[in-house]
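Hey Z.,

So I finally got round to the pyridoxal-5'-phosphate thing we talked about over coffee. Here's the setup:
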Amino acid sequence: MARINSNYRKLTAGYLFPEIERRVEAFQKRNPSVKIHRLGIGNTTEPLTPTVIEGLRDGVERLAAVETYTGYGDEQGQEELRIKLARYYSSRGANLEPDEFFISDGAKPDAGNIQSIFSTDSLVAFQDPAYPVYVDSNVIAGRSGSYDPGQGHYSGFIYMPCSERNDFIPEPPVEAVDLIYLCSPNNPTGAVVNHQQLQNFIDYAQKHRAVLIFDAAYAEFITDPDLPRSIFEIEGARECAIEIGSFSKFAGFTGVRLGWTIVPKTLIIEDYKPEEVHRCWLRRQTTFFNGASNIAQHGGLAVLSTEGLQECRKLTGYYMENARIIKEGLQGCGLTVYGGENAPYLWVKTPGNLSSWEFFDKLLYEAHVVGTPGSGFGPSGEGYFRLSAFGHRPDIEEAVESIVNRILL
Ligand SMILES: *Cc1c(COP(=O)(O)O)cnc(C)c1O
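And the result:
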């Protein structure tokens, strides 16, 4: 008799975004003439840049001629792309070899799949609040007990609360854990770890022989030269860290699909030999995945060209100007706003001790603006609200104006 993987039953219902839509639709029905502004989405809105479009076209053209046609490519991704990525990292002080990069169809699949190379009885720690894939993939793999709705936690997991008290950057866990997920710049809080904070995690990982899984999907939004964009800028990371990167938010590849994971050959766990963890990930990817699209990889090469990088920096600059407009507008109304610097998310403290959902309703009813309740990302998100800087400038300006003019605090 076939049975499903019963761990799927432990997952909390994908309640956040359907509930947002339900409330927005109900409000729109009652108020059909009202224009609703959306500051909730974590999706890019601006078109790909000219150099990148050219790269993608080149990728398509190559498939049209017998001399340049390619089928399955190198299983770790095009060598030229991995060489360019390695050079790009080394220009920022992170020394990696091209064959430590695994090109993929995005950071989310890698963030979900990476746990599969570790023992099922690993003890795992997560930031709270967090991007949901880290927790959910470990629930599906059977590393958790059941979900406790009162606490908003799964038993068997370690949560690292992020709050105003620690500037939304957690301390390493008190207990000895095996795996730690970190995301910086963070979705949803917009917090960015500094060198010292990352060093603390690396020291912890070395002491407890733990592995850090570092999601750097928003690294390119960092403009402050003092903040690390890769964990491999920090001493000791090559022995204990895996990093996940993406072209999605940086270059607008959310729909094109291209990312990468770095598993250093010097990452050693337990009594494993050097390169063994690296080879486990190679084995995982070659078993379950057949490589990123060759067209997308051509686009990725164009992103990493001098012109491509310049254009993509303009693109992130555009979103960061949105972030500045939102932050200034909301602060002008007396709201407390975190994030929005070196990160495209703003983390708003709800006024008057409102719950995240109460503030959602208030913002929707009074200002006709839709955001994302912080409690949807974990219990420590309660009392906060996420706004996203992804959007067309005129829409962002209208939304902010509507908040400034209409919200009653
Ligand atoms: C958007 C996002 C990703 C997804 O990246 P893809 O490359 O599009 O799969 C990964 N991590 C975080 C934290 C994100 O917000």
